[in-house]
Target: alpha-1,2-Mannosidase
Amino acid sequence: MADPAIRKRKTGKSSPSQKNEHLFTDSKRGKDGTTIKTVLAAVLVSAGVLLYMNYDTARSFVRTRLGKQSPGWDFEATRGGAVDFSADLPKRDAVVAAFKHAWLAYERDAMGDDEYHPIRKAGSNLTQAGGIGYTVVDSIDSMLLMGLEEEHARARKWVAEKMTFERDGNFNTFEVLLFTTIRVLGGLLSAYHLSGDHMYAERAQDLADRILPVFNTPTGLPLSMVNLKKREGIPDKDNHGLVSTAEVSTLQLEFKYLAMLADDDEYWRKAEKVMQVIKDARIATGLASIFLNPDDGKFAISPIRLGSRGDSYYEYLLKQYLQTNLTEPVYRDMYDDAMDAIHTHLMKTSEAEGLTYTAEILPERDQQGKIIWRVIPKQDHLVCFFGGSLMLGAVSTGTVGGTVSVPPRAEELTAQGKRDWLSGTELVRTCMATHNTATGLSPEIVHFRMAGDGIESKHDWYIKGARPGYAPYDARYILRPETVESLFIAFRLTGDPQYRAWGWDIFQAIEKHCRVESGGYASVLNVDELPVKYEDKMETFLMSETLKYLYLLFSDESVLPLNKYVFNTEAHPFPVFYPSLRTGFS
Ligand SMILES: *[C@@H]1O[C@H](CO)[C@@H](O)[C@H](O)[C@H]1NC(C)=O
Ligand SMILES: *[C@@H]1O[C@H](CO)[C@@H](O)[C@H](O)[C@H]1NC(C)=O
Model:
């Protein structure tokens, strides 16, 4: 399986499994008071959740295990003739034209810079030390998919000749490890897969080797920042040295695919070890707080949500199970556990319009200093990935026999499968409802009406913090992909043309309100105001995710089929493979 072009790493590969063993016993030992303290904290967290939410403790431990033995999943075998998946070429071409409008402006004004500002027609870098290819690498697999050969040739040349990770920068931007992994490492790996060009794989391995030292912590949880030149992990002082749950659990698809290509277990074990620590840190409800302590491997008392710093933890639980072709049941167990907990504690329905959404819960101290948990009816736009993810989970982990029709029939799904399918489709509907604004674009954060909240709103939801005549920063649309990502998955799993129609509505709203005539696309400051005011930034995920998912939505279903590919959280596709290693924990 290993790609001969990828070299074995020279660095002393001294028995990684022994090292892991050592780390594991260390972190379990509890040599000093800190461990005890945090155990107490974790107990408090769980007690708090249960007390506050007034749920039966026993119930939250019970997990239904229906359909546990399903042998793998497939839909092609049972696909009926009624569903029309043929490409919608005019709409697909319009998406390709939009991609070129974005790329050509970036290339003209900022080629090689990490970020792009289309109004002032200039780029910027994450650090003074110079760019590391964020935007270029993030865009390459979209070019390959869309057949943009000339653009790809120029981007490839830049990667081969100009890109370097010898950057002695203090990469202290928010979640830089996460973004470097999902954008640059993920982008290089999928570019390699789609093109077969070994240069991409070599650059990916160079980057991964520079990232590896971040895992050298007492528990193996990686630090949030990295100096790529010095090959050093740096703790995040802004968050008391804590690491975010989504960040540490959103590198496994990338490192495991690289491990497979390079036939090098070390990448695999480092990434897998994180999952073991998280599994051991489980709190009683099965929910995951957004921060972990890299010194003791425990959850820190912190908010619980499917939005920022939580989101891709849940996404990667499912996708790790899918990536290795359903051969690692531990991820299936963790995913089932998490979905049960989410449905018990976070899944809510709005009062009047019956919109399904996921709430957040925040820890607060009462007057005695005890932790209590407050439910906030707040949903980030980021959460809109979750509708499609639940539907994908339902047809892959929630089937009775392993195969499902398109769309799945009720008798093909287990009780959990039906539950997840239903809440997934409802969440997609809710995310579409939040596009019901002056621009047809959806804001960064919405709140939902609660009984007796005294809010005046046309709908069951409103932009967080909005008042008549005042638009908060959360009223922005920053070219985010999460809703169209779910629409793409929902279309592939149902063939329902409604999902294409919704995707086309969003695409047209982007064209109308975000497109900058001189080139590129900008963010919009208030989705509920016309004419729009721009924020001068074209996020790199426009080209890697938003336009890619729209392109796939209008392509026929042979392009990157969902039972043969997993998409990393930046929309870079990796092939499903059969692992040559056994999972190192259970
Ligand atoms: C970003 O970094 C690249 C590479 O070092 C450099 O050529 C470019 O000028 C930088 N851009 C800005 C806006 O500083
Ligand atoms: C995944 O498993 C199925 C059967 O369970 C098999 O048909 C398929 O070839 C496997 N795919 C890979 C990539 O190993």
